[in-house]
Protein 1
Amino acid sequence: MNVFLKFYHRLGSPREFYKISGTLIPWFGSISLILILLGSYLGLVVAPADYQQGESYRIIYVHVPSAWLSMFIYAVLAVSAMIGLIWRMKMAFVVMICSAAPGAWFTLLALITGSLWGKPMWGTWWEWDARLTSELLLLFLYIGIIALYNSFDERHLAEKSAAILAVVGVVNLPIIHYSVEWWNTLHQGSTVIRSDGPSMDVRMLWPLLIMAVGFNFYYGLVLLLRARNQVVIQEFRNSWVRELLVNKGERS
Amino acid sequence: MNVSEFFAMGGYAEYVWSSWLLTLLVLAWNVLAPQRKHQKLLEQLEVQTKREQLKNSTHKT
């Protein structure tokens, strides 16, 4: 417990966070690279073609991990917003704001790859269907959080406002997930996260899970890279940031 | 399965490969952009520190 508390305090301190992120970045980078390469190979080459959709279904290996990640990132963003609002932990708002841009990117990716899959299978690029519309709303939420944060000069005000929007927006997450059950949608139902277990062939399922885990490590990597920058910006006047330069000089 | 068959993706090549390409671009950009920014921040820091050192040294003389 003591070790855990110590770790928590270290992560909570910007200076310690900067140090820890430096050691974690290469790990997250290599793990995500290996998993994404392996998942791509298994998904594109090894997995069999779908009996209905032929080879086109292989878009699933980038579409579904992006869509899952777009929701996972939002959950992380909203929880850190809540922690920041309640306990005023310094790093929580950093995690919040540094998650918004990658979240928006993966939402956009899920929408575009979905569109590229929809055209050959449904015959349309876009449909105002519950799943698609709620995912589009998620994109607007991310953009709204970034815009709101940037509209204030005073950082604490910016953080609080963005955090409140983030917490309110969390209602969209269950709507996205259950949209394919609650409404009659063109989008297919869940094939992996089901109460009776995945309905996918294991040879198709494994690459998907590997890609999804790889994408999550990738998000960890981006979050660390962005949070490290944010910490330097916020602590620009502090002496420990100045010491970074000295260390950098020693290394090179 | 031969190579040309693999790239043809059963007639869905443009959809499958453009999805993959876009994903690759998004993944690459999201890692490169913050790294470039980090580099810039460190350079900015260096300039700032030098400027302050200069200021201090001129004050003393």
Protein 2
Amino acid sequence: MEAAPQVNPDRWVDDYGDSLFHFALARVKDRDTAEDLVQETFLAAVKAKERFKGRSSVKTWLFGILKHKVIDHYRKNKSTVYTGDLVHDPENIDAFFNAKGGWQTRPQHWQTHPEKSQETREFLDHFYRCLSDLPQRSADAFVYREIDGLSTTEICNQLNITANNCWVLLYRARMLLRKCLERFGFGGQQKDQIK
Amino acid sequence: MMNHWMFRCQDVSEKISLSMDVSLPLHQRMAIRFHLMMCRYCSRFHRQLRMLRKICGRIDGDTMPECDPAGLSQEAKNRLKAKLRSVS
């Protein structure tokens, strides 16, 4: 197990600067913004160094911080294109279904191939934008679960909610995310929007 | 045993989402599978959730292709080092 990292800025920048930068640049498409995110990541790491217990490698730890910085970046720079009636009433998942419990807007066949790198990048761009438009707690639950890989028990502790609440938040997040992604072209035809 | 929820896409979609987080009892898994055999839309929903998970799993360090072979410029590195020295 690796010992807690020494705060050695020169070493961090030389050892991890480029890979963190590539990671950020693949997601924000702008060198200046990517550089800012790397800087924010290092600064946050310096601030949080006492809490780093050495359970993961320094690199994994730094990437973990950067992942959240990227999400914060999208949240701060929300595009109004992505806001709108889609999440107008995020509490009301019932609107996705008709009175008989059938799909009001039928899920479409996604024409994306995430294994192709270019499509992954395009998908991720929309993914981050859609994620930033989710209600905060649903987005938090989703990020903890799917990006950080926490169990629902761990998420309950983080968000101070019951397991049932957690599952509801995750369900809403998934419903809204898939709908949002579909709206932005991953579902092919857009003919059956919610009336 | 037949479950009333297994005929409603809304209920099944909730169970599908739940199945991504916990292990459901066998009879519920069977009921979902039966519904998916009959319902292409819930099948798509199921595939989409799995794809989202797959994509999220790729949001990690070295799994993304590099979009720019050049890394940080030396100037940027020096700037970062100076900034970090000033706070550490």
Protein 3
Amino acid sequence: MKRISPFLSSFLLLLLALILSLAIGSVFLSPAQLWAALTGHGTETSRTILWAIRLPRTVLIALTGMALSGSGATYQGLFRNPLADPFLIGVASGAGLGAVIAMSINWPYSFWGLLAIPMAAFIAALLTVFIVYSLARVGRTVPTTNLILAGVAFSSFATSLTSFLMLRSTNEIRRALAWLMGGASQSDWTAIIAIAPYLFIGLGVLLISGQTLNLMQFGDEQAQQLGLNVTRAKTILLISASLATAAAVAFSGIIGFIGLIVPHVMRLWWGADYRRLIPLSIISGATALLISDIVARVVLAPQEIPVGIVTALVGAPFFLWVLRRSKNLGYW
Amino acid sequence: MFRKILYLILPVVILLAACSPSAMNTPLPQTATGLTQPTLVQTQPAPIILTDGLGRQVKLVSPARRVVSLAPSNTEILFAIGAGSQVVGRDELSDYPAAVAGIQSVGGSMGNFSTETIVALKPDLVLAAEINPPELVKTLENLGLNVYYLPNPTTLDGMYANLRTVAELTGHRDETSALIQTLKARVAVVDAKLVGSSAKPTVFYELDATDASKPYTAGSGTFIDLLIQRAGGLNVAATLKDQYPQVSLEELVVLDPDIIVLSDSAYGETPQKVAARPGWGTLAAVQKERMYPFDYHLLSIPGPRLVDGLEQLAEMLHPELFK
């Protein structure tokens, strides 16, 4: 494995996943039909399926996977905790609460009315992170333990409130459940344009923060002595990772496991240097979520399983396999 | 080595098996599109313009010939008004009438529809319902499909109006008028029989009693409540605020209904099981053995079978009038 370039192989896998995602769906299109549709020929149906359904969905799923996995790697480094995932300090539960509140309101059928749910999810997610951060603050520092505890407590609170609201508004329970289990079946270019700026800002900052995260592995005090402004670095990393995650969940719902496990696989395969780990996690996060989404589309076709179910169903055995054959004992 | 190859090949095999052509929808019969042309020329029908439940204007040049139904209620309505042969796709949960099983499913039991399957069916009308989120309507609209969103009715008259709307969209006006006459006549028979009765038994409509200490029921604002009243009964849960509230057994003992309707009988609940539940033995309905299995579809799906539900309820509540 060490002889192959990690970036080249990750890119090739991503390319393969992208092609499969465009080629496979509940409607069978032969390679010839696909090629015709891709070059602007073929039937109108196959062109619509490829360009208006599969392509935006593939792009949205890839971006979501990038955001979740990149943020996951960052959170694990930031908290120096292998169990950290992008939802650790409340992004998911906050977004879920926002989405379910928005679903209980009868929005007009208009451009903004249709964007109400993702906007509410996005804003609520960022608000949650802000509240948790403020609660965890002690003077001018933000102790990691406080952040985790405040995050877990606030998440539980928001999750309970979400469940309560779901039971009260029985009409929306299916829609809410579908959102909470994750899935981007209703994706179009509007969604991608809406989240892209936040994703690129968030992930852009994470991409250049590898060295900072490496320093942070020594612990707050040592990192400070090595010349890092720890509180500022923490704040910037938290904001960037949360921004990317909030944008990702706004349209795709809560997709678990990807943000936890992809960084670990990358760490097992390519080592714990965050300068490499962050970009590799971002690339492979897209690959992993694309593959999960393909499985979600085809196992019960034309039924679609929420992709949040598939990520763990496919991802957990894969991760255990990687973990089992890893010779790298003290990889963390 | 062998194991390595197996690990590599297995996912590919699974993916290929899942997307083999046999699992996909069959090619579309070309005759359907060929048929529209002559009728268009012969009759020159006026375009159908209707405003749907989302306030959208839906325009059809001629009655729809290839309809995809996105809800069980829509499927039932389409078949009841004689448009069954025009249905080319249906949601996964549609299961009535039995002929539905042979129609291409477009998914949706977990909220996610396969939009590409819908597009591939080339429908000239997609009939959505209130259980479909507006985002789905928008997505399908953006794909160039003609979508009509049929709102849930809240009264029997509203249900008749929905039948008329679907008839308008699919070109079955005359059959539907006849159907509505029949349905109204059946309701009138029930009404006439109930005129003679003054006693109104109290009814507990059990939706789900997986947790027998707090079963789910239907409150006010639901068809269940409306039709229990119409069938000459009093819904004990009508005073509760939620549409589908969970009632504690203590509360149920106080309410002490005369009759328990087991709409969860499809999930294996029987009068014997109800009698054996801890704490239920003291209820009047249990002691007088007035517990009736009931097909929940009849009152959960806002279509023409609501009238079947009404007839069955009336007979359960007032067996003396239906001898």
Protein 4
Amino acid sequence: MTCMTVITVRVDEETKAKMDSVDVNWSEVIRSAIKRRIEEEKRRNLAKAVLINEELRRPTRGEERAEEIIRRFRDERR
Amino acid sequence: MKWFVDEEGSEEALRIRRRYVEGEAEIVAPGLIVFEALNALRYKGLFTAQEVKRISESLDAYALDLRTLSGQYAASTLDAAYENDLTLYDASYVSLAILEGAQMYTADRKLIGKLHEPYRSCVKDILEYA
């Protein structure tokens, strides 16, 4: 069995009232959000991201722009 | 995509990137953005398969806040799609901006042209990014 530690999160009264008005397990929501943020932080390596980005960035050769390619594929899937 | 290819809107997109890297701005996007970015870069014809894999590594290392379409986000996306006659792909970006109280920037003027309020106010042309 995992030993759980208690943490406290403060919210304003309006938010608390909204939280009380819906049937949600807020502890689980907060646990999931914390886990997701930890995973993001573990993946985050901005120096590496920018290094690869700058190494590969290149000028257009006049081909379709990014938004035109995306638009074409989105419209084809309609 | 405009971070990887210099074309119209790249200058503004790189300003967004700089602010993100320096911790001055957050970037939230649908998980779909990774598929669309890598697919567009593939079909640009400027990169080898190996280079697109490296770009995927780079995107992963940026660790953008990517959201899965579920719950309230899915419901809001469907609302945005029906109310503005959009594909769900388009609507997933717009509804996320609404839910997060964020500003969405896009180079897709066709999308901007289809939006009604309150969606229209959340979306700006990327060329307007200062």
